[in-house]
Amino acid sequence: MSLVYVFAASKMEGEPVKQIAGTNIESGLAPRFGSLRSGANELVLVIGGMGPKNARAKAAQAFGLASPQSALSISSGRRPDAVLIIGLCGGLTSSLPENRIVAYTDCLLTEPDKPPQKCSTTITNSVVEFLLSRGISCERVVGITSPRIAVTRDDKLALARSGANAVDMESYEILVVAGQAGIPVAVLRVVADTPDTKMPDFNRALNQDGALDGRKALRIALTSPIQTARLLSANKRAMSHLTKALEILLPADCFSKAQV
User: Fold this and answer.
1) What is the pLDDT of residues 79-131, one digit of tens each?
2) Which residues pair with residue 98 across a beta bridge?
3) Is 141 exposed, middle or buried (0-12, 13-18, 19+ CB in 10 A)?
4) CB within 10 Å: which end of the chain, N or C, has fewer?
């Protein structure tokens, strides 16, 4: 049995975990160790918020690096065996179509002086091989974390020149904090958009913490209703594919004997 912390940026991205574990969580954090179970695994769901700053702060809280009392499993005295980061990502190359499940081998940051963060080879290989054995396509990729949404084709091609295949806004910072805590990490995401996807520029709605300001986002959505509707529909389709993968993965013994 493994204790796995599952990080998702939003409630929507974390919803499959709650459905699979058969419980309903109202707060942003699973209330106590052992409150979620899938197969033989104990799960703690962490809704970290959108953007690098929020992700780093919530990870530090979850692992007790902000303060010893903040660790989610403190009541049990047990540290997590692994971290699984899940959610949507943007594809940066034409070889990654919408709805493709990807597992990061490494994660870059848009700041060029920051070193790459390596995901656990043990867990990543275990996850990819297990999903493939169950008929779920899963591709190993290099990810990159950006403080801004990659909206245009030019945005995505510029990120691709770093050597990355997929982009998100949280994974790098969670990997950094988990590394400080000595906890191995795997990143499993689903491609929701590609370089050819046209979407509204929600960067104009980001607040100083890198999260969406709801009122500003609504105004932008209302000025681009068709693109917004298509984006929401694509996100929903992508999450349905990720949910199928998680239904198979979360009960499985893919997280034991993991190495950082």
Assistant:
1) 899 999 999 999 999 999 999 999 999 999 999 899 999 999 999 999 999 99
2) none
3) buried
4) N
Domain count, the chain: 1
In a domain, 157, yes or no: yes
CA 250 to chain centre: 15
- For the CA atoms of 143, 144, 146, 148, the dihedral, rounded to the nearest 10 degrees, stands at -60
Nearest to 121 by CA among 159, 93, 82: 82
DSSP class per residue in 190-255: EEEE-TT-----GGGGB-TTSSBPHHHHHHHHHHSHHHHHHHHHHHHHHHHHHHHHHHHHTTSS-S
pTM of the full predicted structure? 0.91
Q: Is residue 107 part of a domain?
A: yes
Q: Output the six-digit token pair for 177.
A: 């904090």
pLDDT at residue 132 tops 90: yes
Task: Compute φ and ψ for 206, nearest 5 degrees.
Answer: -75, 135
Share the mean pLDDT of the chain. Answer: 89
Where residue 56 sits, what CATH number does that domain have? Answer: 3.40.50.1580
| Max CA distance (Å), the chain | 51
Position 170 scores a pLDDT of 97
Parent domain of 61: 3-199+241-249
Which residues face 187 on adjacent strands? 85
